[in-house]
From TrEMBL:
InterPro entries recorded: MYG1_exonuclease
Lineage: Eukaryota, Metazoa, Chordata, Craniata, Vertebrata
Record GO cellular component, one term: nucleus
Protein name: Myg1 exonuclease
Family label: Belongs to the MYG1 family.
Origin: domain of life: Eukaryota
Cross-referenced PANTHER family: METAL DEPENDENT HYDROLASE - RELATED, MYG1 EXONUCLEASE
Originating organism: Cynoglossus semilaevis (Tongue sole)
Length: 401
């Protein structure tokens, strides 16, 4: 009887061990992968109960360990600080311990490793960019994106986790168009700068006229211990740096979501309704004055495939009067696509109304880039007259001399 009980006990122990090992092995296959515009997670937890006994699941929950984010120790830089901040905003890593080391054995135990280890492998969550063979950019990994700056650990983490990150921080859904617009904007106007500086890529060729020493990367660098400080401990500075870059990123995200995106919506609606303002489609009217429009207008003309470039925008000012402003040839130029008529420039009030034949004129700037009228109809007429004057003369009829 004793031997029978012993055999039964051994059989149960072996069977239970197989169940646990099988469960652990299968759970490794279910490890969620990061997603970006080119990498999408495929996680099917429905198979779990078939391969994992309830007892095995209970034991795994009891022994659950804290996630670990690995990065290098010593002098820290903006890219890995920002990468760690990004990861900490995700539910999976919000309580993760940050292990700062170059020890390969310790890094091997980390769930995700950034900026160290000499390996880029998203499937294993390894995001280093220092290896000789690494040349990846946003465009090389996501061909539909235009940026060709070599990625740092910040850019790599943002590329793979950015949609999930922004969905978590904004409550937008990952497939919403607004989130994709924010995703692009925050890379272009926040993360790409960090990538370029960390990889030693200059903004331009030639010698600069002056130094810029207040970039985010520079301010992170200043939080490292000074070379002659008695203490060379970098942990306190690293934590301060992560707090600083986090606050700055969140502030920028708040601006783009609460101010920049609403302005884009106003401009987009105006562009779509432009033919109702004037049949030419070259005049847009903004329902709200004070809306920043230039950057959005240029982007939306491309996105909406506007064939005839928009020449003028109309909007009301703080005094309830109306402005007609010329669209510049580009974001960083004072040249206009079409300036207001030369003979109007520098003329004001009644003199301008008599000269133009348009009631309610207030002024036209001497530079010809903006004018004013007391009414919306008057401002619109100023734009129309300028378009008419610039229109090419009709070709002569056949047979005429």
């Amino acid at each position: 009887m004793w031997r029978l009980c012993a055999k039964a006990s051994t059989l149960i122990k072996n069977t239970f061990s197989v169940e646990i090992n099988t469960a652990r092995s299968f759970s490794g296959l279910l490890r969620p992968e990061a997603s970006c515009c080119c990498f999408h997670a495929v996680t099917d937890t429905r198979l779990g109960p078939r391969y994992m006994s309830s007892e095995a699941k209970r034991l795994r929950s009891d022994n659950m360990t804290v996630k670990k984010i690995g990065t290098h120790n010593g002098t820290f830089h903006c890219d890995e600080v920002l990468a760690c901040f990004f990861l900490r905003q995700l539910p999976e890593y919000k309580d993760a311990e940050i292990i700062r080391t170059r020890d390969a054995a310790q890094l091997a135990e980390c769930d995700v490793v950034v900026d160290v280890g000499g390996e880029f492998d998203p499937k294993k969550h390894r995001y280093d960019h220092h290896q000789r063979t690494f040349t990846e950019s946003f465009h090389s990994l996501c061909p539909q994106k235009p940026w060709v700056t070599k990625l740092s650990s910040a850019g790599l983490v943002y590329l793979h986790f950015g949609h999930q990150l922004l969905a978590q921080l904004t409550q937008l859904k990952e497939n919403e168009r607004q989130l994709e617009v924010l995703y692009d904007k925050l890379y272009e106007n926040f993360v790409e700068e960090v990538d370029a500086i960390d990889n030693g890529i200059s903004q331009y060729d030639g010698e600069s006229r002056y130094a810029i020493s207040s970039t985010l990367s520079a301010r992170v660098s200043h939080l490292n211990p000074r070379w002659n400080s008695k203490s060379q401990d970098t942990e306190e500075g690293f934590q301060k740096a992560m707090k600083m870059v986090g606050e700055e990123f969140m502030d920028r995200l708040d601006f783009y979501q609460s101010s920049w995106l609403p302005a884009r919506a106003v401009v987009e609606e105006a562009v779509k309704q432009r033919h109702q303002v004037d049949p030419s489609g070259e005049i847009v009217l903004f329902s709200l004055g004070g809306c920043p429009w230039k950057e959005h207008l240029f982007a939306l003309e491309k996105e909406l495939q506007v064939e005839s470039p928009i020449k003028f925008v109309l909007y009301s000012d703080q005094n309830g009067q109306w402005r007609v402003q010329c669209v510049p040839a580009g974001l960083n130029t004072f040249q206009n696509r079409l300036s207001l008529l030369e003979e109007w420039r520098g003329v004001r009030d009644e003199a301008l109304s008599e000269l133009s034949g348009i009631k309610g004129c207030v002024f036209v700037h001497a530079g010809g880039f903006i004018g004013g009228n007391k009414t919306q109809e008057g401002a619109l007429e100023m734009a129309r007259r300028t378009l008419q004057a610039a229109a090419p003369a009709p070709a002569p009829a056949n047979g005429s001399s």
